[in-house]
Amino acid sequence: MNEEEIKQKLTAEEYHVLRQKGTEAPFSGKLLHDTRDGMYTCKVCGSKLFSSDAKFDSGTGWPSFDQALPGAVKETVDTEHGMIRTEITCTTCGSHLGHVFNDGPTKTGMRYCLNSVCLDLKEGK
């Protein structure tokens, strides 16, 4: 899928976040409080990224997970906006998903902080 096809597939907000590294407003995402079982996938390419078993309520306003599926996301140092963070992108299509922090409350110690608009939820186990 080329960039123009991706742009046609997504809403303006989805495109801004996924392809231009934007961020959705906190507490606005449709998947923030979703508790259904399933697999979270990339909105652009459909690749599996996170299991619902890894999701937790971080209180930050974005869906959070304590681990990604093996090989599903790429981590890159992000120094924009005067901060040093670790950006996560989809390994398959390179779309921006959010950031990962090492302040998670679970045994992994990780908090993958995602934008809801980057994800689809495929229900079921």
Descriptive overview:
It is a single chain. With 125 residues, the protein is of the alpha+beta class. It has one domain (3-123): Beta Complex (Metal Binding Protein, Guanine Nucleotide Exchange Factor, Chain A), CATH 2.170.150. The chain is built from two helices and nine strands. Strands 3-4-8-7-6-5 form a six-stranded antiparallel beta sheet. The model has no long low-confidence stretch (mean pLDDT 96).
Instruction: Label the CATH architecture.
Output: Beta Complex
- General form: globular
Rg over CA atoms, rounded to whole Å, is 14 Å
Distance between the termini: 28 Å
For the record, what CATH class applies?
Mainly Beta
> How much of the residues is beta strand, in percent?
25-35%
Order of helices and strands: HHEEEEEEEEE
* Low-confidence regions: none
CATH homologous superfamily heading? Peptide methionine sulfoxide reductase
Secondary structure: number of strands: 9
In spatial order, strands of the major sheet run 3-4-8-7-6-5
Biggest sheet character: 6 strands, antiparallel
Average residue-wise pLDDT: 96
Number of helices: 2
Count of spatially separate domains: 1
What is the helical fraction, as a range of percent?
10-25%
* CATH topology category name: Metal Binding Protein, Guanine Nucleotide Exchange Factor, Chain A
- Which structural class best describes the helix and strand composition? alpha+beta
